[in-house]
Structure formats: structure tokens, C-alpha cells
UniProtKB/TrEMBL annotation:
Top-level taxonomy: Eukaryota, Metazoa, Chordata, Craniata, Vertebrata
Pfam family, one: Methyltr_RsmB-F
Species name: Scophthalmus maximus
InterPro entries: MeTrfase_RsmB-F_NOP2_cat, MeTrfase_RsmB-F_NOP2_dom, Pre-PUA_NSUN2, PUA_NSUN2, RCMT, RCMT_NCL1, SAM-dependent_MTases_sf
The protein's name: tRNA (cytosine(34)-C(5))-methyltransferase
Domain SAM-dependent MTase RsmB/NOP-type positions: 59-423
Chief site of localization: nucleus
Length: 740
């Protein structure tokens, strides 16, 4: 791929950016000063006839209306039902009775086609939100829960591709053009459908060509605290073939599921990406078609036989949609077929794909067939942009199985999606390429102790892209070009690493704890943080040292606390990894009640005596240091949360504290019915508002302010009571965790 094509892939991702970021800027957008007209756009889509007869004006009217804001409750966390209950019973019910300026507010509605009422949309604008303290509370709830990873604010049509992939926990998944990461988050959630399994067999490789956008992707993925996600930085059209060790042999990795959400012209995003109105031209699609096809071809090459790949764009243009699918099917010679997904999402309204379309230049010239294209335009216009001329072959493709979402049908953005199933190896890949042995560079020495590591950027060599019919000859070897930041190494610990000696005894880790899955980010010096990945991702890291540019992987499970050495262990538990790690911990656990959690989250360093008798008795038996605070739901008391809650804490000499980042603290308090709304202007509530604000509610604002300081200073009661505390580096509230 040339420099211009690479830059186009980075810059022409208008659709993916705007789709996934739709709601991040706020609820509704006011662009009254921008004229929402484009005559070329209207004439082009009128001529194509993609919109049903008599509906074109409705289609254009919908395109000019602001897009509803949509939210999605993360489905893999065990307390998703609790969040849904909170939304429906508290916020949505209050909004239903609300009137502003004499106008009744329309309550959020569940998306009819999204499973289990896990996605909602509303037409509330930022202007309306500012007029009501009740709506401001709702908005703060959404912002806080989004930061905690419990809610994603994502456009409705952007939620479709992961649903159509039909993810199972054992699937190996590739997200080819993943940034900014909303759909990647869905994939991770689906892997963790069973929260009782800390390490699903499957994993997600999330890739993006843009190094800077990869860090946005890391931020999105890190909110979900999964050990089964790896973020990599490659050109999707030439993403390297990876290898895994299977039964002592090196095998080529083929993915069970691939999400191919390609860069596109984004004309389905006109409702919020207002710039598209003035910038749209048919040339955009002509420029992107080749890149989209190359990415899709590379995807199906890496798809396992029997696997599914979803191809999607937020463009309505057949040049970017059906033309790419038709070219892919034609080149596959029967190895691919379009799946019929019509029954997969009941309630979703969509138009079937078309099998006839024309092409128009920005000057208004129309072409129906490649034979009509003058030689002067044949570099810009390619044969794959037209429908196949063989009617029998065209019919066998079943392009009507593609799905086009029109904005006026269900008040959404525009979207295109197609589900491909691989029935056989691609004709140009029927003989697998020879697997080159990789040198033993994956073993390294750290401080005299052997450790398996992934070499740094300088050690990456060449990437070979499999040849396919879109090229006249196989592409040459491409040297891995390294851009962006230099990443710290990924260094796996060995089972006899000295660091495990005190950790093993202090936390009484179970014998099946996977020590080999623990890594750090430094070869030398003291290990500051320890991370965990699944054994499958460890396999990937160790067998692809020269092929991948890894940006981030692993969930933080322990952080060094140098002052803790005197209490038996230099590493305290990290909240990010507690749900992954806790199943292996057999000591340092205090079972707490709802009232205990309220005390721990609304009071700073409460005395042990503030806990209820059962928890107090357990705490007194433990020495000072890091602890797990575990709430076990009581099915006989449905008024209390019906999901397990696990918090990291610190047992001091006379006090105890929950070591939980601020937004998670808010999240758990809301689950327990504690009000955590904070006036935006910092004004004190009126006397009337003060009534009833006692106990936890009155104290929570003070505690959260102190918590902000504590997160930065890491205050811990290290044995000298309340008067003498030692400070430690920042608490576990960071999102990237890239430093060693």
C-alpha cells in the first residue's frame, strides 16, 4: 500500500469516528447555522432508487434531524441487570412524569431489536438537560457509569455488527479497524458472558492503522478489565499472519470471527457529522473502494473455514457496499457465501441489498458498466465497482441478504452490513504458506532470572501478505515500519520468579493459579505493576515477536506498595483485576454486608468498629495489608443487589478502607440506593433540598472530594493510626497501565 492509500485509510474513517463518538459530545447537537443540503447527494440517491418509492422526502427529512442519543448497558458484567433496574425504576420513571416549559419529556425507549433491553435511545437535547436538575442527575449518572465501563454511549447502528457475529466465549476474534473501540467493547462483553469464568478460551485482537487512535482504543477496552484483549497497530489491508503453538507444533492462526468495519465516506452519518453535507461527493466512494476491498480480502484470508466475517460501513453507497461484497464473492469462487441474517434481530427494520447499481463521477457522468468507462478514467474507476455482468452468477451471490439501514425507518443513522461465512479455503490460499521458524528471541533474562518476553519494536522484521487475485503479482516483503510511541516490553514471569514467593503465601493462591500468565512491563529494576493475560494471548505474544506491534494487553492485578513489605507482601491488589484474580485468592477476604459497603464507600478510613459484627470479627483476625472485600447476594432479600460485589481494600492498624477509583465508588453506591449527585456549579442545596439528606448522602460529597486527593496521594493507614500516614504513588485509577 502506498503512502497516499495509507493516509487515506487513516483520514477517511469519518464514518467509524462519528458513529462511535456520536453521543460523547453531549445529548443532541445544535447546528442551526449549517445548511443541510447537497444537491449532488440528493440526485445521486434518487437515481439509485435505494429508498422505497414515495419515501425519499421522509429519508431526507430524517437526515436533517438530530440523531437520538443511545446508550448500551455492558452485558458481560454480572450486575448489568442491577444497572438496568436502576435506570428503569429511578431515572426513566422520574423522567416520564417530567414537564419542561409546558412540554412533556419523552422518556428513553428500549431499542426493540437489541437483546434483553440492554440498549436505549432518547431525543433529549443538551438544552433541555440544562433546564432540569433531574435531567442533570441523569446525565451525570450516564457520564459516571460510562467512565466506569458499565454503560457505553454508542450509536444504535454501530451496535449491529457484533450482534450479527454471534460471538461465543471460545471464539478467536479479530477486529480489523477497531478504533475508537465501541464495537470492540461489545466483543469483549460477549466473550465474558459467563462471569464465573475468569479466563474465557477466546480473545479479541483489536487492530488499527493509526498509532494515536490505538490509545483511544486502549482506553475503551481498559474500562472492561479483560485479560483477553490485545491492541495492535497494523495496516488492516496487510495485517500479518500470526502463529500459535498447538500441541507442540507451530500452526497458522485463523480467526473464528472477524469484524471488518472499514473506513468509509460516512454519508450515513449526516445527522451528526455535519461536515459531510458540504464535503460529500461521489469521488469519496471511488477513492475508498479499493482500500475497502483489500481490507475485506485480507480479512477472509485469515478467517477459519466455518467462521463468520461481518463487513460493515456507515455509507449507503453501493460502491462501498454491495460492490465490495460482489467482488469478494466472485474472487472466492464459492469459498464464501452471504449468510441470511433476516431472522437474527427481530424488530430491526432494514432494506435488502441491491443487485443493480450505477456509478456517477463528481461531474455528474453516469456509467452502468465497465465497458462504458473511457480509458482516461480507468485508473480511478475499476471493474470491481460494477455489478457482475453474468446474471446467473449475480443471482447465486444473493446480494439481497445484505442489510441496508435507512435513517427514517427507525430514527437511526444510515448503515450497511453483510455477514459472510467461509465454506472453504480461499482459492489462492488452498496450500498454506510454509511457517518460518522464529528464533528463540522470546526468552530473555531479567535480573538474573529467566523470563519469556516479547522483543521491543526494533526487533520486528518483515511481514508477508498472502498473494491474492487483486494483485498482478505477489506483494514484496514489507519491512515493518514503526511509528508512534516506543512501547515498553511485555515480559512474562516464570513459575519460580522470586516475586511469587511472598504473593503466594500472603494471598494463599490456589494451586491452579496460572503464574505463567503474569507479565510485567520492564526487563530491569523492580516490577511496579503485574498484569495478567489469558493463556491464549500468552501463546500469541510468545510466538509472534517479529510480526506484531503490540500497543497494550493484560489487566492489572497487583501494584507495588513498598511500604507493604513490612506487612508481608510488597504488592497490593488492584481493583482493575479483582474479578479476574479473586477466584484464585483463598485468604485476605472479608465478607461484607450492604451496610458495610456503604460505610466503606462513604467514609474515609473508617475505624474497624464501624463494620457490622460479622465483618468486624473477620477483619480483626487479619494482619495489616491489602484485602478483598466481598459481598455475596442474598436471594431471600430482593431489595438488596442480587450480584456479587468485590472491592480492593486495605486493612490498617485501627481502620479499614476501600481502595476503589472514584467512578466505581459512585457506581456501587448507586447500586445500593445512595444518592451521589453533585451540583454542577458547586452550589449548596437549598434548605428544602437538605431535608432527608442524612447519613451516607450527606457524607458522600465530602468523601469523594477526599477520595480525589487519596487517588493522587494513595493515603494508606500503614499501622500508625490516623495521625501518621505514609503516602504512595497514585491509586489504581489509571486506564492504560503501560509503564513497568
Amino acid at each position: 500500500m502506498g503512502k497516499r492509500s495509507r493516509q487515506r485509510q487513516k483520514n477517511q474513517s469519518t464514518g467509524r469516528d462519528s458513529r462511535d463518538n456520536a453521543v460523547r459530545v453531549g445529548w443532541g447537537n445544535g447546528y442551526a447555522d449549517i445548511v443541510k443540503e447537497n444537491k449532488l447527494f440528493e440526485s445521486y440517491y434518487k437515481e439509485l432508487g435505494l429508498v422505497p418509492e414515495g419515501e425519499f422526502e421522509q429519508f431526507m427529512d430524517a437526515m436533517r434531524e438530530p440523531l437520538p442519543a443511545t446508550i448500551r448497558i455492558t452485558g458481560y458484567k454480572s450486575h448489568a441487570k442491577e444497572i438496568l433496574h436502576c435506570l428503569k425504576e429511578k431515572y426513566f420513571k422520574d423522567i416520564q412524569e417530567l414537564e419542561i416549559d409546558g412540554q412533556k419529556i419523552e422518556a428513553p425507549q428500549a431499542l426493540s431489536w437489541y437483546p434483553d433491553e440492554q440498549a436505549w435511545h432518547t431525543n433529549m437535547s443538551r438544552k433541555i438537560i440544562r433546564k432540569s436538575p433531574l435531567l442533570e442527575k441523569f446525565h451525570q449518572f450516564l457520564v459516571s457509569e460510562t467512565e466506569s465501563g458499565n454503560i457505553s454511549r454508542q450509536e444504535a447502528v454501530s451496535m449491529l455488527p457484533p450482534l450479527l457475529l454471534k460471538i461465543e466465549p471460545h471464539h478467536k476474534i479479530l477486529d480489523m479497524c477497531a478504533a475508537p473501540g465501541s464495537k470492540t467493547a461489545q466483543l469483549i462483553e460477549m466473550l465474558h458472558a459467563d462471569m464465573d469464568v475468569p479466563f474465557p478460551e477466546g480473545f479479541v485482537i483489536a487492530n488499527d492503522v493509526d498509532n494515536k487512535r490505538c490509545y483511544l482504543l486502549v482506553h475503551q477496552a481498559k474500562r472492561l478489565n479483560s485479560p483477553c484483549i490485545m491492541v495492535v497497530n497494523h495496516d488492516a489491508s496487510c495485517i500479518p499472519t500470526l502463529h500459535i503453538n498447538s500441541g507442540g507444533k507451530r500452526d497458522v492462526l485463523f480467526y473464528d470471527r472477524i469484524l471488518c468495519d472499514v473506513p468509509c465516506s460516512g454519508d450515513g452519518t449526516l445527522r451528526k457529522n455535519i461536515d459531510v453535507w458540504k464535503k460529500w461527493t461521489t469521488s469519496n466512494s471511488l477513492h475508498l473502494h479499493g482500500l475497502q476491498l483489500r481490507i475485506a480480502v485480507r480479512g477472509v484470508e485469515q478467517l477459519a473455514v466455518g467462521g463468520r466475517m461481518v463487513y460493515s460501513t456507515c455509507s449507503l453507497n453501493p460502491i462501498e457496499d454491495e460492490a465490495v461484497i460482489a467482488a469478494l464473492l466472485e474472487k472466492s469462487e464459492g469459498a464464501l457465501e452471504l449468510a441470511d441474517s433476516s431472522a437474527d434481530l427481530p424488530g430491526l427494520k432494514w432494506m435488502p441489498g441491491v443487485s443493480s447499481w450505477k456509478l456517477m463521477t463528481k461531474e455528474g457522468m453516469w456509467y452502468s458498466d465497465w465497458s462504458e468507462v473511457p480509458s482516461s478514467r480507468q485508473t480511478q474507476i475499476r471493474p470491481t465497482m460494477f455489478p457482475p455482468t453474468d446474471s446467473e452468477k449475480l443471482a447465486s451471490m444473493h446480494l439481497e441478504r445484505c442489510m441496508r439501514i435507512l435513517p427514517h425507518h427507525q430514527n437511526t443513522g444510515g448503515f450497511f452490513v453483510a455477514v459472510l461465512v467461509k465454506k472453504a479455503p480461499m482459492p489462492w490460499n488452498k496450500r498454506f504458506p510454509k511457517v518460518k521458524d522464529v528464533s528463540s528471541s522470546s526468552a530473555a533474562q531479567t535480573g538474573g532470572s529467566p523470563a519469556a518476553s516479547l522483543p521491543t519494536d526494533e526487533n520486528m522484521r518483515s511481514v508477508v501478505c498472502s498473494p491474492h487475485p487483486l494483485f498482478s503479482r505477489p506483494p514484496p516483503l514489507k519491512k515493518m515500519k514503526l511509528f508512534g510511541y516506543k512501547e515498553d516490553p511485555f515480559v512474562f514471569l516464570t513459575e519460580d520468579d522470586p516475586v511469587f514467593t511472598t504473593i503466594q503465601s500472603f494471598y494463599d493462591l490456589s494451586p491452579d493459579f496460572p503464574k505463567l500468565n503474569v507479565l510485567t512491563r520492564t526487563h530491569e529494576g523492580k516490577k511496579r505493576h503485574l498484569y495478567m493475560v489469558s493463556k491464549e494471548l500468552r501463546n500469541m505474544l510468545l510466538n509472534n515477536s517479529e510480526r506484531m506491534k503490540v500497543i497494550n494487553t493484560g489487566v492489572k492485578v497487583w501494584s507495588r506498595n513498598s511500604d507493604g513489605e513490612e506487612f508481608g507482601c510488597a504488592f497490593r491488589l488492584a481493583q482493575e483485576g479483582i474479578y479476574t484474580l479473586q477466584p484464585y485468592i483463598r485468604s485476605r477476604i472479608i465478607t461484607v454486608s450492604v451496610e458495610d459497603i456503604k460505610v466503606l464507600l462513604t467514609q474515609e478510613n473508617p475505624f474497624l468498629s464501624k463494620l457490622q459484627d460479622h465483618a468486624h470479627a473477620q477483619a480483626k483476625k487479619l494482619g495489616m495489608g491489602s484485602i478483598v472485600l466481598k459481598y455475596i447476594p442474598n436471594p431471600s432479600n430482593p431489595a438488596e443487589p442480587q450480584c456479587s460485589i468485590q472491592l480492593c481494600g486495605w486493612r490498617g492498624k485501627t481502620s479499614i478502607r476501600a481502595f476503589v477509583p472514584r467512578n466505581e465508588r459512585f457506581h456501587y453506591l448507586r447500586m445500593l440506593g445512595v444518592e451521589v449527585f453533585k451540583d454542577k456549579q458547586g452550589q449548596k442545596p437549598s434548605d428544602g433540598e437538605k431535608e432527608g439528606k442524612e447519613g451516607e448522602e450527606a457524607e458522600v460529597q465530602k468523601v469523594t472530594e477526599e477520595e480525589s486527593v487519596a487517588e493522587n496521594e494513595g493515603e494508606l493507614d500503614l499501622g500508625n493510626g490516623e495521625e501518621n500516614r505514609s503516602s504512595e504513588p497514585k491509586a489504581d485509577s489509571g486506564s492504560q497501565g503501560t509503564s513497568g
